[in-house]
TrEMBL record:
This is RING-type domain-containing protein. The lineage of its organism: Eukaryota, Fungi, Dikarya, Ascomycota, Pezizomycotina. Coiled coil: none annotated. It comes from Setomelanomma holmii. Keywords: Metal-binding, Zinc, Zinc-finger. PROSITE patterns: ZF_RING_2. Residues 30-95 form the RING-type domain. The keyword DNA repair does not apply.
Length: 251
């Protein structure tokens, strides 16, 4: 079974961390950008202003061997490759070996963590529905998915406010509200955006974490008095367990 991109980067590649920045030859080059192993990376490339590989030098990055094929790449170039709109994003750029299970939400997580702007590409879902690719970029679909998440959080929260309270302080059941949001989104066929879709357990956990983050922000910004309730403590405990599970799955 192939690992998720996040597990591949944080676990599989880190098992051989002693070899990082120690290529077999002083003349080694990155198999993605084709620049010397100790080169830095063009910031214009990192900012997503070009589909071409980096051509100037400015940002330092780790040089490491891919697992299990052993071909060497810059870490940042690997993450960049994983955000491109082509079928090589889950494979070694040299031998074509499938390295990890590609899914949008893990690529988004790593691109954000690496300060890379994600590429705009047309989602498979839009293509499968027969709509012209020029109509909407996947970034637009991503933004629409986020709006739907926020709308559903608002709707479910007020539904739970109207239900008989189960907590001693009469606060609404935020944990059940969270699960109801997830279930409602699933019934709606969300996510649609390629950047939010998942295939692995890690990907699904990241999707849940995203919804939890948005729900927490909604409550803090619009209903901050709930932070003093039993419901809030239960919700925060559940959110922390989710974060712990993601770390355990990755490492």
């Amino acid at each position: 079974v192939l690992p998720s991109l996040l597990r591949y980067v944080d676990h599989d590649l880190m098992r051989n961390s002693a070899a990082h920045n120690h290529p077999p030859s002083s003349h080694a080059t990155c198999n993605i950008c084709l620049k010397p192993w100790n080169s830095t990376i063009d910031p214009a490339y990192l900012n997503g202003t070009s589909e071409a590989a980096p051509s100037q030098y400015s940002v330092t990055t780790t040089f490491l061997p891919l697992e299990p094929c052993g071909h060497w790449v810059h870490y940042t170039c690997l993450i960049w490759l994983a955000t491109r709109s082509h079928d090589r994003k889950g494979k070694c750029p040299t031998c074509g070996m499938q390295l990890f299970e590609w899914e949008g939400i893990t690529a988004l997580t790593l691109a954000t963590r690496s300060s890379l702007n994600i590429a705009t590409f047309v989602s498979r879902a839009i293509k499968e529905r027969g709509q012209p690719p020029s109509l909407r970029s996947d970034m637009a679909v991503y933004e629409m998915d986020c709006e739907v998440i926020e709308t559903m959080i608002h709707s479910q929260f007020f539904l739970h406010l109207g239900k008989p309270p189960k907590n001693a302080d009469r606060s609404p059941d935020l944990v059940q509200c969270f699960y109801d949001v997830l279930n409602a989104l699933q019934r709606m066929g969300k996510p649609v955006s390629g950047w939010l879709q998942y295939k692995t357990e890690t990907g699904y956990a990241l999707w849940c974490a995203l919804v939890a983050i948005k729900m927490r922000r909604y409550l803090v910004e619009g209903h901050n008095t709930i932070q003093n309730t039993e419901a809030w403590r239960q919700f925060e405990d559940g959110r922390k367990v989710l974060q712990t599970n993601i770390l355990a799955e990755v490492h």
